[in-house]
Design brief:
Number of domains: 2
CATH class of the largest domain: Mainly Alpha
CATH superfamily of the largest domain: Hypothetical protein, domain 2
CATH architecture of the largest domain: Orthogonal Bundle
Helix content: 40-55%
Distance between the termini: 64 Å
Radius of gyration: 24 Å
CATH topology of the largest domain: Endonuclease III, domain 1
Structural class: alpha+beta
């Protein structure tokens, strides 16, 4: 099809120089695709370089412990990606001797690998003619064909996948898939797309109908939940503190944090020290002060965390302690990492 030829021609002249583009090694392509989910290339690139230096092969990643993996991932967000990455590396090393499946259908069976990632690996590494559909592809196709079906609806996901599949250049599916993704990232951008001199301008329905800003269409977002976090930053006389690993299936599973008192609304010091979580942690006298006068608002996709850091000085606590000198070795959420940068600078 003419569209595929135009995109491939544009790509061969304009493609970005990226390390995972220089190989068909499925391990590196898999790493890059997992990292770039919900993440811009500029943000993901340094992480890719760190990961491939620390874990040059799938066996190296499999041998690492989860804390090592999460520490290297720290700041990239959506930490379930890192846990799934580690799980799949161990699975591949043990069950397949480190060899990746070479078809879309088999790749889909790997934990953390969905339609998009399986399509990318299969087409780029094994020339399996399966179309990728990510945010960039949705944008290009919805604008070019003037499609108003919401891209995050069941109908839209099916419709765009089927359309993308009819357009793919079966003689070079990996090149075509990278071409349409790069085109969406570089030219057909969400804001201020470069429509002037666009190679697809003559056939673009959205440009002809002045609908560039309206497309693609998304169904309304889920309501954002507000949560109130009160972190207890312990300082003992022998320079120790308390860090706890987050358990369960909520946000930041496997990362570490200071003891947390979560409340349904904002809380003052008097209310805090009456909480069971506080009194059980500090059986003896403690001095408390608020580090940040204004709540730090940490925004996640479907929730906003209104956060206070309470510095608590005491002789002893009822929990297992760690030395302040080792705190930076633990994988922590960005929210806590930013606090530590500021707090440790003032402390020193």
């Amino acid at each position: 099809m003419i569209l595929a030829k135009q995109l491939v021609y544009w790509y061969l002249q304009n493609k970005r120089d990226l390390p995972w583009r220089k190989t068909k090694d499925p391990y590196r392509v898999w790493l890059s695709e997992i990292m770039l989910q919900q993440t811009r290339v500029a943000q993901g690139l340094p992480y890719f370089l760190k990961f491939t230096e620390a874990f040059p092969t799938v066996f190296d990643l499999a041998k690492a412990n989860e804390s090592e993996v999460l520490k290297l991932w720290q700041g990239l967000g959506y930490y379930s990606r890192a846990r799934n990455l580690h799980f799949t590396a161990k699975f591949l090393a043990k069950e397949f001797n480190g060899v990746f499946p070479n078809t879309y259908k088999e790749l889909l069976k790997l934990k953390g690998v969905g339609d998009y990632t399986a399509s990318a690996i299969a087409s780029i590494c094994y020339a399996d003619p399966v179309a990728v559909v990510d945010g960039n592809v949705y944008r290009v196709l919805s604008r070019y064909f003037g499609i108003t079906t919401p891209i995050n609806s069941t109908k839209g996901i099916k419709e765009f996948k089927e359309l993308a599949q009819t357009l793919i250049d079966t003689s070079q599916p990996g090149v075509y898939n990278q071409a349409i993704m790069d085109f969406g990232a570089i030219r057909c951008k969400p804001q201020n797309p470069l429509c002037t001199d666009c190679p697809l301008a003559n056939g673009c329905v959205a440009l002809a109908k002045n609908q560039i800003k309206e497309l693609p269409v998304k169904e309304k977002k889920i309501k954002v939940k507000k949560r109130y976090f009160n972190y207890l930053v312990v300082i003992t006389e022998n320079n120790k503190t308390v860090l706890e690993e987050r358990k369960g299936k909520g946000i930041w599973q496997g990362l570490y944090q200071f003891p947390l008192v979560e409340t349904p609304k904002e809380m003052n010091e008097k209310e805090l020290i009456e909480k069971k979580e506080f009194t059980s942690l500090f059986p003896k006298e403690a001095t408390i002060s608020l580090f940040n006068n204004k709540d730090i608002i940490h925004k996640l996709s479907h929730q906003h965390l209104f956060t206070k850091f309470w510095v608590v000085k005491t002789k002893e606590v009822s929990e297992k302690m760690v030395s302040w000198g080792t705190v930076k070795k633990y994988p922590v959420p960005v929210l806590i990492d930013k606090f530590l940068e500021e707090f440790l600078n003032k402390k020193s």
